[in-house]
Amino acid sequence: MRLPERISILGSTGSIGCSTLDLLEKAGFGGAIEVLAAGRNVDRLIEQARRWRPALAVTADEGTLPRLREGLAGTGVEAAAGEAALVEAALRPVDWVMSAIVGAAGLPPTWAAAGTGAVIALANKESLVCCGPALMHRAEEHGGRVLPVDSEHSAILQVFEVRNAAQVACVTLTASGGPFRDWSAARIARATPQEAVAHPNWSMGAKISVDSATLMNKGLETIEAAYLFGLRPDQLDVVIHPQSVIHSLVRYADGSSLAQLGPPDMRTPIAVALAWPDRTAWPAPALDLTTCGPLTFEAPDLTRFPALRLAREALAAGGEAPAVLNGANEAAVRAFLDRRIGFSDIAAVVEEVLEGMGHGQSHQGAGNGVLEGVMAADRRARRGAQDVIERRANAA
Ligand code: NAD
Ligand code: MG
């Protein structure tokens, strides 16, 4: 087993970031951590930096720098803050970068890291949704690679033996269905933030938990899979599988389907990305087939969960549509968590923004112009969403 020697973790204080550090601990990681970076949770960042002694600890929020400096005094760990510092940190040469910031905020540092030739372990699916083809191209052009951390895409990576998309008949992403899987449309419309973040199988950050409840998460993952594996929209399918044991499957042209199974624990897909194509040895929870069943499957209901349909439409439209979908969704989820709009308004806001904005051109190449174009589309989508949110909040 060969693990990378020098690594950075962007979004170290979140659910994926903490799982990554826990896995490194349990796998006996003996290498060095270059960067630990986070948003606002400075106390946890200090705690992590004191334990792991990275060369640099960064917070995105400049107001927290004095506290970070004070917390790291005497450790020799350098402290920095702000968005530019985050991008500079991501440019530091390492073998492996965990990209686990939530939302489009993770795109600039992930883009920077993709230009260094490092392997990018990508949990931050919003980056790929916003500019997938360019990000993949950029990583490869610089001698690196994007490896998925999302459990479904990790599954596909593992069963994707033939890297010829033409031999793939269909890739099926499994979805737990979220906490509202069997709720009526009327009950879903009244769902509270507390109910939406209570995911049945996975413990995750608030934003992805809401995305799982609307099924937007599976929509974002459909786009993510298209870009990661070079698949057409008609080669991608979603099935609801409430037990989250089969993480995804690939059906080949000859009728053979390969699936990947595992307990719902993100440390396993992180371990896959850490040593790929080798395997990371760690005391992993094992799947027990005699106790995990029965396994059930059903088709997603696009009437109760329109976000999945919207994401598929944005993928088919191409251009800036996926970035607009993502930006509008982030703004709408924030407004829902702040109790300014209802749960069903999330997809309605996204739909209205997509309809009103056109789809723009797709940005060519892998230079920094692409990043600027995508970030501008993201800002436009958020502004458009704010207008719709105001209107809906005032009408309520
Ligand atoms: P989280 O909210 O628990 O953590 C987010 C991390 O990003 C934190 O470290 C936070 O400090 C940091 N952050 C937030 N805003 C920032 C900003 N503006 N600048 C810099 N850092 C910022 O989220 P999570 O559940 O760990 O998810 C992280 C990413 O991984 C998301 O893109 C999510 O979709 C993806 N993902 C998560 C899971 C999971 O099980 N949690 C599974 C698959 C994919
Ligand atoms: Mg997933």
UniProtKB/TrEMBL annotation:
Its EC number is 1.1.1.267. Keywords: Isoprene biosynthesis, Magnesium, Manganese, Metal-binding, NADP, Oxidoreductase. NADPH binds at residues 13-16, 39-41, 124, 126, 205. SUPFAM superfamilies: 1-deoxy-D-xylulose-5-phosphate reductoisomerase, C-terminal domain (SSF69055), Glyceraldehyde-3-phosphate dehydrogenase-like, C-terminal domain (SSF55347), NAD(P)-binding Rossmann-fold domains (SSF51735). Residues 146-229 form the 1-deoxy-D-xylulose 5-phosphate reductoisomerase C-terminal domain. 1-deoxy-D-xylulose 5-phosphate binds at residues 125, 151-152, 176, 199, 212, 217-218, 221. PROSITE patterns: PROKAR_LIPOPROTEIN (PS51257). Pathway: Isoprenoid biosynthesis; isopentenyl diphosphate biosynthesis via DXP pathway; isopentenyl diphosphate from 1-deoxy-D-xylulose 5-phosphate: step 1/6. Its cofactor is Mg(2+); Mn(2+). Residues 261-383 form the DXP reductoisomerase C-terminal domain. Mn(2+) binds at residues 150, 152, 221. Catalyzes the NADPH-dependent rearrangement and reduction of 1-deoxy-D-xylulose-5-phosphate (DXP) to 2-C-methyl-D-erythritol 4-phosphate (MEP). Residues 7-132 form the 1-deoxy-D-xylulose 5-phosphate reductoisomerase N-terminal domain. GO terms for molecular function: 1-deoxy-D-xylulose-5-phosphate reductoisomerase activity. NCBIfam families: Dxr. It comes from the Bacteria. Belongs to the DXR family. It is an enzyme of class 1 (oxidoreductase). It catalyses: 2-C-methyl-D-erythritol 4-phosphate + NADP(+) = 1-deoxy-D-xylulose 5-phosphate + NADPH + H(+). This is 1-deoxy-D-xylulose 5-phosphate reductoisomerase.
